[in-house]
Amino acid sequence: MDTASLERSFTIRASEGFLEVLSAPVVAAVARAAPQVQLRFVPKPDKEAGPLREGLIDLEIGLHGTSAPEIRTRFLFRDRFVGVVRTGHPLLAVGEVTPERYAACRHVAASREGETGEAVDTALGRLGLGRRIAVAVPGYPDAMRIARQSDLVALVPRSCLGNGLLGDPTVTSGLEGLGLPVPAPEFLISAMWHPRLDADPAHRWLRETVVTVCREAYPG
Pfam families in the record, alphabetically (predicted)? Predict the structure, then answer.
């Protein structure tokens, strides 16, 4: 397929976190190979497969949580939760970040934490501890912005702290990541699409482009 002459529009559904750190590298890779292709990113409010089935979106990026068995998936990268605080935060000042010190802080929570975030709370609960949620926000970029300008601690996927392809250092400027003092399970980020697009050469090229960018950004 001659991608240089390809004229096509693709709709990609992804979270704010993905858009913050990976949309620009994906756009750049697509533009280099297929300058006439148009990408349209739309919000990912849930994991429902309806938009994929109905052809409203061409590709979805995120946790594979849909209940639709026919949806195709392709692994992109592994992720896990980390803590994020402002540079100079008291939590970083002295000694080890223990479960007690972590839980004693006030926290900002993103509604997208979902089941994986609950695993962190469950681990703290086994120790008789719990996060004190002072602020709740819709997405991880919102949580990071608040953490940057306060003493609140955010819980975000490690991928939100950037990658080697991210050309904008302001995303993580003034922030420090820290390992959680309790076990945090890994989770897999995948690309998802409807099987009717399996054999579509243009869509296959788009999938491979997204896979290449993501694995270059987060190898291993």
Answer: LysR_substrate
3.90.660.10, 3.30.70.1140, 3.40.190.10, 1.10.357.140: CATH of 80-185? 3.40.190.10
- Kindly report, residue by residue over 17-56, the tens digit of the pLDDT: 888 889 999 999 999 999 999 999 998 877 788 899 999 9
In this structure, the chain runs to a length of 220
Tell me the C-alpha distance between 84 and 99, whole Å.
15
Strand ranges across the sheet with 187-193: 38-42, 9-13, 59-63, 187-193, 72-79
Report CA torsion sign: 18, 19, 21, 26: positive
What is the identity of the amino acid at 18?
F
- Neighbour count for residue 171 (Cβ, 10 Å): 16
Q: Does domain 8-77+187-217 have CATH number 3.40.190.10?
A: yes
Asked whether the predicted pLDDT for residue 63 surpasses 60, the reply is yes
